[in-house]
Each structure stands twice: as C-alpha cells, then as structure tokens.
Design brief:
The protein is of the alpha/beta class. The chain folds into two domains: 203 residues, no CATH class; 214 residues, no CATH class. It contains 24 helices and seven strands. Strands 1-2-5-3-4 form a five-stranded mixed beta sheet. A hairpin with a 4-residue loop joins strand 1 and strand 2. Helix 7 packs parallel to helix 10, helix 8 packs antiparallel against helix 11 and helix 20 packs across helix 21. The longest helix is centred in the last third of the chain and has 25 residues. It starts with a helix and ends with a helix.
C-alpha cells in the first residue's frame, strides 16, 4: 500500500451515534507524557539562550518533526485532536436525523432488495382479500368490517408504509424501549394485535363495494407504527449487522436485537420464515372518506396511554396483595379509580408503595417508575410472581418496613402535624419523600441489619412525639426546597435520603435539612 493510498483510507463506522464530529483523528506523534514534558522544557530553555531560533528549528535540532503535537497533559495516553482541518475524506458518523433518513430509505427499497436477493416468490402481487369470517355491518358508517389473515410479505405490499406517511410520521423507533421490545418480540415469534385497514375506491375516496374489485386503495387506520416495526424486523433478520455498517442503526440497537436475530437461524431461512408469518388485521370497506376519517379519529385521538401507576400496579399485584394482607396498609388502587374521584389523603398509592419497596431493597433514592416498569417488562411474564422480583427474606423485610412507615410513622406524623395539612400527609402524598425515606431505611438494613433499622425508627418515633410543634423540622425542609433550582428531582431525593441517613447513624440528633443541603452543595 502506498503512502498516498494509506492517507486516503477512512475510519470505519463503529456504530455509535455521534453529532457529526469526525472520528478519523490520528494519534499524536509524541504520545508519551514524560517525553512530551521534557521536550517542552527543552524548547523553553533553548528559547532563552537562542531567542532568534524558531520553535520548529529547535524541534528539528532535537530530532522531532516540525509541528509534532506535544501532549502536555499529565494523564498518560490522553490524545489531542490534530490541528488544522480534517482531511476531505474523513468519516463522519451519522446524526440521529441522518440515521433515520438512511433507515427510511432502506425501508422504501426493501421490496426491491428482497426480490434481488431471491425472495421474489414471497412478494407476489397481493391477491384479492379473503376474509376468514363473515363481515360485520357498522350502522354508523354503513360499512362492513371483516377479519383477514395473510403472510407478512403480502401485507407489507398491500399497505404501503410510504403511502401512509401523511397520516402519522414515523419517529425513532430504535430509541423507544416499547417499540424496540415490540420489534424484538415479533422477531422471536410473538403474536401481534390486529391492525385496522380501510379499503377505498381509487376515485376520490369512493366506496369499495367489494374486496374483489381491482381498483382498491388501502389506508392504515390503526397500526402504522406496528407496520414500521414489522419492516424494521424484516431488515434486521435480512441484513443484520450490515445495518450498523451502513449507518442505518446504532451498534447499541444491534446488540439489543442480536440474540433474537441470531436465534432465527441463517439469513436465507430466517428471512423466508418472517415473510411467511401470518399477519392479522381488520378490513373496513364499503365506507367513504367521511367513514375513514371517523375511524381514524376514533381509534387514534380517542386512545389513552396507560399510566405508569396503573402499569406498575398490574405488574406488581402480588406485592400489593401481600402488603394489604400482611401489613394492613391503607392502599389506594389506581386500577379501581373512576374519573372525578381523588385519592384520600391518608391512603398510600399502590404504585408509590411498589417504587418505595424497590428503593428500600436497592437502597437507592433515584429509582423511577419508568425504569422500574422497563425492568419488569424485560423480566418477561414472571414479574407476576412475587419470588421472581424479591427474595423471600427481602419480601419479609419489605413488608415489615413499609408497615412501620405507613402505619406507625405515618400516624405519629399525622398527630404531630394535625393542624398543618402540608406536613400532615407528607408520607402518604408519596413521591420523592416516601421513596427516599424508604431508601435510607434500606441503606441502614444493607449496611447493618433489621435490628439497627428498628432501633433507628424507634428514635424517629420518639422525636416525632417529643420534638415540639415541628418535630421533624419540616418548615426548614420546605424552605430548603425553595433554594433548589437545578436538577430538582435528583437533588430532593438525595436531600431526603442523606438527611435521614445522618439521623439514623447518629450524626445529627434531629433532621437537619439545611445543613445536609449545604454539605451536598460544597
């Protein structure tokens, strides 16, 4: 290889998403920190004795190339970017927008690429739809609704994702954990919910009187994002790690899907199988444009995403049942809530208890409902089994501690602050205070044992009963919160956690909120 050809080579994309910075920088010619420092001192000495000499002349005399980079950092191995403009052919990793555009282009050309690779037999022109059962009439639109099953290779041609972009632009599915899981599960063979497809005549939104007539235009009513996920799944099975090399997906995304994809077998067989996979959908026909819009509004804008509180309560129902049965905790169930009805202030939300249990076990005040939900989903269906989430010893300690917090400690606080509604329900209001308090309890249990935690909670009980008008110093707590202006959530969690820890280990004889906050900001 000639020097010129070597200079023209570019660095291969490593799959990590960047913001357009060149990653083809070469290492400095002088990389040893000790040598670099000595060279710098030598140049300084020569400058004093021979001021007429330039730095490059001094470098040349000492045997270093003119303009060689000097690493003046004491940290060995730390590299500097070379000076000047990068070479014209320096590689630039794709930005997030560029990557999405590259992926979208591959999806648009997927059919042609599959046909060129020998999968044309599985991509025949879609035949007339044959419902699996008799259609059901809809009096509202005067249309018919039927159920259909057909291979994925036919379905992705019948409902062109390109023709449906106007309805809802696809977003970055490979950054959304829910859609990433859907894609992975689909690759592994999981059944997907039915999509909803409209069949219209091609003449300005006229009714398709029959599913066998030739001039039918199909529109996705509900399931466009699912369709995009199906197409990504086909690409992953078909092209695999090549998608990283071609900058369509990140290396992190590929690592997430790698095991599921490789389990499907070789590329040829796996691609054939996924294209043959039966896809189910509802077909709406004998409707006009007004009927199509009616369904789109009904099935899209009418949807409500399940809240994190409800998700957690469903997935951790065994824990909630255990807390209600064994600890007799007053629990408010979001799953049983009705519009217009609010949680009684003295009761504890089921989701708050779940996240507090996790904070207690991990001794971590920074646990979040979103992260907990994701972890439970990644654990598959066994999250419904209590022993799959907690050890038996953990379950007993969780129940015992949450019972103390929600009954003994909570009742004493309500008595001590009977005339102060802000402080009276500080525990049952849930949120950051409850889970950070639970995390502090968990830290004492982890570092010591449950006996030490019981003793610390007894000290807290005595302080609450005998500490005067504001035994827990909650007025100071509220004033301290007013001074937190950045990273409020993280800072408040740390404040509550550290304040209780200092009280538990005897550093303070009361809850010193302001002093704790000062120590955190030093």
């Amino acid at each position: 290889m000639t020097p010129n050809s070597q200079e023209q080579q570019t660095t291969a994309y490593d799959g990590h998403e960047q913001m357009g910075e060149p990653n083809g920088a070469s290492a400095p010619l002088v990389s040893d920190a000790a040598v670099a420092k000595k060279l710098k001192k030598a140049i300084a000495v020569f400058k004093k004795s021979f001021p007429q000499m330039s730095e490059n002349e001094i470098r040349a005399m000492l045997g270093f190339p003119a303009g060689a980079d000097v690493d003046d950092d004491d940290t060995e191995g730390k590299k500097k970017m070379p000076r000047g403009r990068p070479p014209k052919n320096a590689y630039k990793a794709p930005t997030r927008v560029e990557r999405q555009e590259l992926l979208r282009a591959r999806i648009m050309n997927l059919k042609e690429e599959l046909e060129n690779s020998g999968f044309g037999a599985l991509l025949a022109l879609p035949p007339a739809i044959k419902p699996v059962a008799d259609p059901v009439p809809d009096p509202k639109t005067k249309g018919l609704i039927a159920h259909v099953e057909e291979p994925l290779g036919i379905y992705i041609q019948r409902v062109s994702v390109q023709d449906n972009f106007a309805q809802r632009q696809p977003f970055d599915h490979l950054k959304d954990p829910i859609y990433m899981r859907l894609i992975r599960d689909f690759i592994e063979g999981a059944a997907m919910p039915e999509s909803k497809i409209a069949a219209l005549g091609t003449g300005g939104g006229t009714r398709a009187q029959s599913l066998t007539q030739p001039d039918i235009r199909y529109s996705v009513i509900d399931g466009l994002q699912r369709l995009y996920c199906y197409l990504i799944a086909i690409l992953l099975v078909f092209l695999r790690e090549k998608l990283v090399q071609e900058r369509c997906i990140t290396k992190e995304a590929w690592e997430y899907f790698r095991e599921a994809v490789e389990t499907t077998g070789d590329v040829q067989t796996a691609t054939q199988e996924i294209l043959k996979r039966l896809t189910r959908y509802e077909i709406f026909y004998q409707i006009d444009l007004e009927g199509l819009l009616h369904y789109m509004v009904t099935f899209n804008t009418g949807q409500r995403r399940m809240s994190l509180d409800v998700q957690l309560e469903i997935m951790q129902r065994p824990l909630i049942d255990e807390l209600a049965l064994s600890a007799n905790i007053p629990i408010w169930h979001e799953t049983q809530n009705v519009p217009g009805k609010s949680k009684p202030k003295e009761q504890f939300s089921a989701s708050d208890l779940i996240i507090s249990a996790r904070a207690f076990i991990t001794a971590n005040p920074q646990v979040k409902k979103q992260d907990q939900t994701e972890e439970l989903l990644e654990a598959d269906e066994r999250y419904l089994e209590l022993d799959s989430t907690f050890d038996v010893g953990d379950i007993n300690d969780v129940v015992q501690t949450l019972k103390r917090i929600t009954t003994d400690v909570h009742k004493r606080i309500m008595v001590a602050y009977a005339d102060n509604p802000i402080h009276k329900y500080i525990l049952s209001n849930g949120g950051m205070f409850l889970l950070s308090f639970a995390a502090a309890c968990g830290k004492l249990r982890t570092d010591g044992n449950m006996g030490l935690l019981d003793a610390a909670l007894l000290r807290l009980d005595k302080l609450t009963e005998n500490g005067g008008d504001d035994p827990l110093n909650l007025d100071e707590y509220q004033r301290t919160l007013g001074g937190i202006t950045s990273s409020r959530g993280k800072s408040i969690r740390r404040l509550v956690y550290d304040t209780f820890r200092r009280f538990f280990n005897g550093t303070t004889s009361r809850l010193e909120w302001a002093d704790t906050y000062r120590s955190l900001t030093l």
